[in-house]
Amino acid sequence: MRCPFCGNIDTQVKDSRPAEDHVSIRRRRFCPACGGRFTTYERVQLRDLVVIKTNGRREDFDRDKLERSIRIAMQKRPVEPERIDQMISGIVRRLESMGETDIPSKQIGEIVMEALARIDTVAYVRFASVYKNFQAADDFDKFVSELRPGAAADK
Ligand SMILES: [Zn+2]
Questions:
Q1: 29 C-alpha vs ligand 1 centroid, how far in Å?
Q2: Is the same domain home to 60 and 15?
Q3: What is the pTM of this model?
């Protein structure tokens, strides 16, 4: 696993244990080149999901992107990190068990909003307001940067 700080390929695993949700293994890694420490998660890929964007383009489902957008919406909210992890795993399991490998991006957004609404109203409103604006544009990177706290203040 390449070090995210210095790019060194030869990193060491210091500790491995099941993550909170028990569907992944959490590994703490150490980079002997720069002393950096980071954590990786190993999980079973049940199916390879494809996202169908509103413009018809297909894109491999990216759990990290989903996770990033949710974490940004949840920023500084009084919710346990473990609870957020469980929610994300729950969303992914739902997507994986839908019976289709091709999933419209709109449907993913709705599932995320539903999950957020149950866990934290503020995070839900943050996500939903940005999601609805960008649904037409369907530009996820723009979406994520808009969600980032402070983005609104820059305008
Ligand atoms: Zn390094």
A1: 10
A2: no
A3: 0.59
